[in-house]
Specification:
CATH topology of one domain: Serine Threonine Protein Phosphatase 5, Tetratricopeptide repeat
Number of strands: 0
Number of helices: 24
Largest sheet: none
CATH class of one domain: Mainly Alpha
Strand content: under 5%
Structural class: mainly alpha
Shape: elongated
Order of helices and strands: HHHHHHHHHHHHHHHHHHHHHHHH
């Protein structure tokens, strides 16, 4: 068992998760009369490797077995370790409330035990949960605190992974230039330490940034490289992630047939491993793919599946986004009542969460569809209703919101006289966003 324990870091860094699980299973099957402490440790390590491999159900079974022993023997360090793995498992599957509860129990134990390193690790993990819930400012606070500790401790591998986590948060906050610099810094360090899984994850992040900037070929290259690594280390969750991202890049390029193949493969894996969040992402992208080729009934079916999972997961940002996608599809199908219902629910959630960016983007999407029906006056009124919300983004000259606003505004000014534009824009500024939506979507 000492040799097995010594090999854990090697298996983790090299991505040899299945090899590690294989040897641990042999140990657990053949070892008789071993102390509880050794059995608990073997089950814990096996659970961790299975979780990293994307085998969530097996991971949970092994980790819960270890936790049961640690609780019985009152081994606080072991209890905290197992809680962290179970929390990570919950987070990977989109069960964020469960993840938060488990991390907070682990955090309490580690603080009571004076385990400073464990406290910092748990704060970093809590930051990742907050990131997945769309609470980017809170996530940034947790992860920056963790990074300061790790830089002082000098652990290069953990420093690199924490920098990558911070880059994700900055991307969520749309601080894209800083996010890119951090991901590149993390990637260089991860290559130096030979951490294959971390390298693949950073390549995914660089692909996302390239996709955001419209650099579709670069995005495809990064996603393909990440897929190659995930396949090499047999990481099913990672393979599914890369396939879905390749599908996104294909949709952006207009390669719908190949995109469909990628996303369907990803969905199959994600359903098999019980990845709700990943499955929702696949349904969302299948909806976008069918909407792009004007198959709106099929798109609505996929968006409905996406919405069901988003409600189960409980991330308000993604629920609001899913409702907006349903609203847009209903509008394309000329069902204005259902469109209005979905859009108003989306706006209500975004405003309640003080998510100005999501509110603005929902209105932009509705405006673009209304524009496609040549309803220019209603479109101007909608744009007017978000003037106050949008003012916070006017200084961000390169933000997605600024670019989209200018694009829509230019088209509207071409279609209407200056007098008409000012009249309906002024009307919109006197309405709440919800009131403007109701007016714009009325028959």
């Amino acid at each position: 068992m000492r040799l097995v324990a010594a090999l854990v870091n090697f298996w983790t860094v090299q991505g040899l998760f299945s090899s590690g699980v294989h040897w641990l299973n042999i140990f657990l099957e053949k070892a008789t009369g071993i102390p509880d402490s050794l059995r608990a440790k073997a089950l814990y390590i096996s659970g961790m490797l299975l979780m990293l491999h994307g085998e969530f159900e097996k991971s949970r079974k092994h980790t819960e077995g270890s936790l049961k022993i640690y609780r019985r023997t009152e081994d606080k360090k072991g209890i905290a370790l197992c809680l962290n793995i179970l929390a990570s498992d919950a987070s990977e599957q989109g069960r964020y409330d469960d993840a938060t509860r488990l991390y907070e129990e682990s955090l309490m134990i580690r603080r009571e035990s004076g385990d400073e390193r464990g406290v910092i690790l748990t704060l970093n993990n809590l930051g990742n949960v907050k990131f997945n819930q769309g609470e980017f400012r809170t996530a940034k606070k947790f992860i920056e605190e963790s990074l300061e500790y790790y830089r002082n401790a000098g652990d290069k591998r953990i420093i690199a992974n924490t920098i990558a986590n911070l880059a994700n948060v900055l991307f969520g906050l749309e601080e894209n230039e800083n996010a890119t610099k951090l991901i590149e810094e993390a990637l260089q360090m991860q290559r130096e330490t030979g951490d294959k899984k971390a390298v693949a994850n950073s390549l995914l992040n660089l692909g996302d940034l390239s996709l955001y900037r419209g650099e579709y070929e670069n995005a495809h290259k990064y996603f393909e490289e990440s897929l190659t690594i995930f396949e090499e280390i047999e990481d099913r969750a990672g393979i599914a992630f890369s396939l879905c991202e390749l599908g996104c890049a294909g949709i952006a390029k207009g390669d719908f047939e190949k995109s469909l193949e990628y996303i369907e493969k990803s969905l199959s894996i994600r359903i098999d491993i019980g990845d709700k969040r990943g499955s929702a992402d696949c349904y969302e992208n299948l909806g976008k793919l069918h909407a792009a080729v004007k198959k709106f009934n099929e798109a609505a079916d996929f968006y409905e599946k996406n919405l069901i999972l988003r409600y189960e997961i409980g991330n308000n940002e993604f629920i609001a986004k899913a409702l907006a996608l349903m609203g847009g599809t209903m509008l394309q199908l000329h069902d204005s009542e259902k469109a209005k219902k979905h859009y108003l629910e989306s706006i209500g959630i975004s405003l309640e969460s003080d998510n100005k960016r999501q509110t603005i983007n929902t209105i932009f999407e509705a405006t673009e569809i209304i524009l496609s029906f040549d309803n220019y006056k209603r479109a101007v009124m909608l744009i007017g209703s978000i003037e106050q919300l949008y003012s916070a983004f006017k200084t961000e000259s390169k933000s997605r919101e600024s670019i989209k606003f200018e694009k829509i505004n230019s088209e509207l000014k071409e279609k209407l006289s200056n007098e008409e534009y000012l009249k309906y824009f002024s009307e919109g500024t006197k309405m709440t966003v919800s009131e403007a939506l109701k007016r714009a979507l009325s028959e």
